[in-house]
UniProtKB/TrEMBL annotation:
This is YdgH/BhsA/McbA-like domain-containing protein. It comes from Pantoea wallisii. Keywords: Signal. PANTHER family: OUTER MEMBRANE PROTEIN-RELATED-RELATED. InterPro entries: BhsA/McbA_stress_biofilm_assoc, Dodecin-like, YdgH-like_sf, YdgH/BhsA/McbA-like_dom.
């Protein structure tokens, strides 16, 4: 019983800590009332648009941002390599 309780507690803490520290995306309209803290960029990210956006979110979080707004993401030609930028907010 103690083992089961410990596993459930650890899972709950892991979920709570991930939710607490993740940078949240904003629309342009939502960002109007916030002050920019700079930008983050990515390049050479393999995969899909979701992978590129996830990398932007991670970089925003690493910079201490609570929110970010994707400025642009591009994929040249038929490449699976993405680059992009996002404005960050604290």
């Amino acid at each position: 019983m103690k083992t089961r309780y410990a596993i459930m507690s650890a899972a709950l803490l892991a979920t709570a800590s991930f939710t607490t520290f993740a940078a949240s995306p904003l629309s342009e309209r939502e960002a109007q009332n916030l002050q920019s803290a700079g930008t983050v960029t990515i390049s050479g990210v393999r995969g899909s648009l979701d992978d590129a956006t996830r990398h932007l979110s991670q970089k925003a979080e690493e910079q201490g941002a609570s929110h970010y707004r994707v400025i642009g993401v591009q994929n040249p030609g038929d490449s699976s390599m993405w680059s992009g930028s996002a404005e960050i907010y604290r």
